[in-house]
Amino acid sequence: MKTPIVSFLNSYQDRTPVRMHMPGHKGVGIFGFEGMDLTEINGADELFAAEGIIKESEQNASSLFGCPTYYSTQGSTLCIQTMCTILCQDAKSKGKKPKILAGRNAHRSFIHAAALLDFDVAWLYGNNDYLSCKISPETLEKEIVENHPTAVYLTNPDYLGNLLDITALASICKKYNVLLAIDNAHGAYLRFLKDSLHPIDLGADLCCDSAHKTLPVLTGGAYLHLSDSLNQVWGNDVKHFMEYFSSTSPSYLIMASLDAANDVLDRTFRSSLSECIRYVDSLKNKLVQRGYTILSGEPMKITISTKDYGYTGNEIAYFLMDRDIYPEFYDSDYIVFMPSPYNTNADFERLEECLCKIQRKSVVFNLFPKLEHVKKVMNIREALFAPSMKVDVSKSLGQICSSVTVSCPPAILPVIPGEVISACAIEVMKYYGIESVRVVK
């Protein structure tokens, strides 16, 4: 598959041009990649008005994902903001006030989007786990009937690797003529499984992928995908909506990595992904035999419930990091590993060896606090932009949360701006080591 962005950057660099344009490093620097770091000069196209090499590259990505695909150089955050804009504009075009029914484990970027766009949110509480939100089709249908949302917003996969039944959930949304948006930041690779589990293929109307999380793409590279039917309505406005939130200087290095990834995805990624999954499955089986509890879910995450083995996730993480093995995430209850086809056999062997050196102990029984429904007294926008002050968590009881900085790892909020901080919320924040919180003055 052609890589037009990479080809242009290489060609420009090879001509040793006189660079009387930005950036200021003029293609020279200590890292060696500066020569390919450009701005929107003649021939380089423009991300939000793509008519040349960027448009061609996005069309290549669209063919790989089987749906209209748009690039982001600001991660899934920009894609989430744009998705929410589309959901709001779509509701308004139908004469409705935007109201999004969202899983409580929504990433903080969704909260920011709600504040910036000022739409109503009704929360879906799937279970008592702060990192997951397991929603059944029956629960979703009940909540749609009760709340009358204009759209549903869910996270899949979640940070621990849990997968929702997107096909069934999408069917419920279509039954009630409600758009379904999926935060698929951790699941770009799902399209390239033998049987695709990508949200668009399963019936979602739009979704985001953080390409950099699971594909060979630089940090910040992401995709926004629309279904064909939704793209027919809003395709001409997508780039316009992205500009609301985006830098006017998108990184060409990130765009080039998205472009280069197209060729890899087209030629070799499916086979290397399949081989990697075999290694992951083998490691999971060996760890289970050793006595570890492995959470089931997506094929490319290894999530260990560590207290069943006698340790906190922190303790196992520190043991591994002392040996230069760095997990994706850890807290008191879990440790999460995110391998990819670019990990070597030696990487898997080293991880297995270190984990198997840890001797199993008695089960740790202190469970994480339960999730509770909280009282809302202000909308998100009012609370986020209200005058606020920082207070110790222990002194915040009864006050109104005003900040998304009270982040229960990973970037999930035990209390949302506009909600009253309860004793349970304080317990959760202390459990996750949060010492201060911003509250409305």
Describe this structure in words.
The chain has 441 residues and is α/β, with parallel strands linked by helices. Helix content is 38%, strand content 12%. It has 15 helices and 12 strands. The strands form 3 sheets. A 7-stranded mixed beta sheet has the order 1-7-6-5-4-2-3, with helices on both faces. Helix 4 links the parallel strand 2 (99-103) and strand 3 (120-124). Helix 1 packs across helix 10. The termini are far apart. The mean pLDDT is 95.
Kindly state the number of beta strands.
Answer: 12
Oligomeric grouping of the chains = single chain
- The secondary-structure class comes to alpha/beta
Q: DSSP helix count?
A: 15
Output the CATH class name of the largest domain: Alpha Beta
CATH fold-level topology of the largest domain: Aspartate Aminotransferase, domain 2
When the domains are counted, the total is 3
Strand order in the largest sheet? 1-7-6-5-4-2-3
The low-confidence runs, each spanning 5 or more residues with pLDDT under 50, are none
